[in-house]
Design a protein that fits this description.
Number of helices: 9
Structural class: alpha/beta
CATH class of the largest domain: Alpha Beta
Number of strands: 6
Strand content: 5-15%
Strand order of the largest sheet: 3-2-1-4-5-6
CATH topology of the largest domain: Rossmann fold
Largest sheet: 6 strands, parallel
CATH superfamily of the largest domain: HAD superfamily/HAD-like
C-alpha cells in the first residue's frame, strides 16, 4: 500500500529552474562566458552536478566562491519578483493532503528550499522536508528519499516519488520506490525509462496516486 508521496521541488512544484538558469546566465555573462539553457539543463538538472564541477570540466579560470555568491544575490532578487508555482501544483497538494502523507526532497540547500515553499505557501502540506544538508549525497544517489522514509517511519515500498528529472527517477529506483516522472521543458530529453509512470503534467498525477 502506498502511504507516502515524496515530491521534488525545483521544476516540479515551483518554476524555479527558470530562475536558477537566469541567475547563472547573468553571473557567467558578467565573467565573459555564455551559458546556454541546454548546457545548464544537461549539467545541473540531468546530471545533478554543481558549479565547481562545471568550472573544472570546462577549464574556466573563475572563482567558484564569487560565482556562487553572485548567483545567490541574483537568484534571491528573482525569487522576490518572478517566483511562480508550476501549473497544478497547489491543486495537487490540496487534493492529496488527507489521503496520503506528503514530503519534500530537494538537492538544494535548506535555506533555498524553505524560502521557496514559504513564498508559495506550500510548507503547510509537508510532514518532512529534506534538503542538501541532511544527507551525504544528493540525487541521483537515493539518500534523500531513504532519509525521508526513515524520518516518516515508512518502508520505501510504501512511497511514490514525483520528479521532473532523470536524476530523481534514478534515485527513486535505487531507493526501492515507485516513481512518477513529470518532465519539464528542461528535462523532456531525459531518460525516464526507470519511472513507474510518466505524465505530461501535474494535472495527471492525482489520478495515478489515488489508484494506490
Amino acid at each position: 500500500m502506498i502511504t507516502t508521496i515524496i515530491f521534488d521541488l525545483d521544476g516540479l512544484l515551483s518554476d524555479t529552474e527558470t530562475l536558477h538558469i537566469k541567475a547563472y546566465q547573468q553571473v557567467f555573462e558578467a565573467q565573459g562566458y555564455d551559458l546556454t539553457e541546454d548546457v545548464y539543463s544537461r549539467h545541473w538538472i540531468r546530471d545533478g552536478k554543481g558549479v565547481q564541477e562545471f568550472i573544472d570540466e570546462n577549464k574556466l579560470s573563475l572563482n567558484v566562491g564569487l560565482i556562487r555568491s553572485e548567483k545567490a544575490k541574483v537568484y534571491d532578487e528573482l525569487l522576490k519578483t518572478s517566483l511562480n508555482a508550476m501549473p497544478g501544483a497547489k491543486e495537487l497538494l490540496m487534493c492529496l493532503r488527507g489521503h496520503k502523507r506528503l514530503a519534500l526532497a530537494s538537492s538544494f540547500y535548506r535555506s533555498n528550499v524553505e524560502q521557496v515553499i514559504r513564498f508559495l505557501d506550500f510548507n503547510r502540506y509537508f510532514d518532512v522536508v529534506a534538503a542538501y544538508e541532511d544527507v551525504k549525497a544528493v540525487k541521483p544517489a537515493p539518500d534523500l528519499f531513504l532519509y525521508v522514509a526513515e524520518r516518516m517511519n515508512v518502508n520505501p515500498s510504501e512511497c511514490i516519488v514525483v520528479e521532473d528529472a532523470e536524476k530523481g527517477i534514478i534515485a527513486a529506483s535505487v531507493a526501492g520506490m515507485k516513481s512518477i516522472a513529470v518532465p519539464s521543458k528542461y528535462t523532456r530529453e531525459n531518460d525516464f525509462s526507470l519511472a513507474t509512470h510518466v505524465c505530461d503534467s501535474l494535472l495527471d498525477v492525482e489520478k495515478i496516486i489515488l489508484r494506490y
